[in-house]
Each structure stands twice: as structure tokens, then as C-alpha cells.
Amino acid sequence: MGIARENASKAGVRVDFEHGDAADLPFPDTQFDFIVCRAAFKNFARPLVALNEMHRVLKPGGNALIIDLRKDFSPRAVKDYARRHGLFAGPFIRLTFNTVLKKRAYTKDTSPN
Fold this sequence. Notes:
With 113 residues, the protein is α+β, with helices and mostly antiparallel strands. The protein is built from four helices and two strands.
């Protein structure tokens, strides 16, 4: 969270950062207008419980945005992304996407395998 705090400070925005369990959020009901979960959902041990918690803490009419990796991601897009990150990081990125991350990714219609 140190990097996030530093970035928020540099940007001149006030943000409160909390560390916790997505399946047991430390907030009262109907607390938030908007929730963003990026590149983390596939790692949740109890994804359905986490979804219920997100719903619980959203205000009526609030929205949640979950952005994560699907198994049918484009190998070409990964290759292009990795190429922009240099000779060392590029191959490491490709290896990570095609092994570790792909195993945990979601399919279009189901939960992680």
C-alpha cells in the first residue's frame, strides 16, 4: 500500500487505503457508490462471498466494476504487450501470462478452474 499512498499523495488526492479480506469487508452496509476490483478477483479464495460483500457495501443504485483475466485472452495482445517491456521483462511477462495467470483466469461462462 506504500506505493499507492505515495502515488495518491503525488496526485494530490485524498484516499483512504484499507487492507483486508474481500469476503469480509470492514465497512457498514450501503457505504459506497462505486467499487472497482482490478486484476484481483481470480485470486479470491471465496469469490461468491466476495461478490455478496461488494453488493452489501454498495449503496442502492451503486455500481461495481470487476476487471480480470479470461482464459480466452489474446496471445497476440500478450505478445505485443510483452514486447514493449524489453528483453528481460518481456519474456517473463509472457511466461507469467501463459502459465500462472492463465491457470487462475476465468472462462467466459464459469468460475476459475
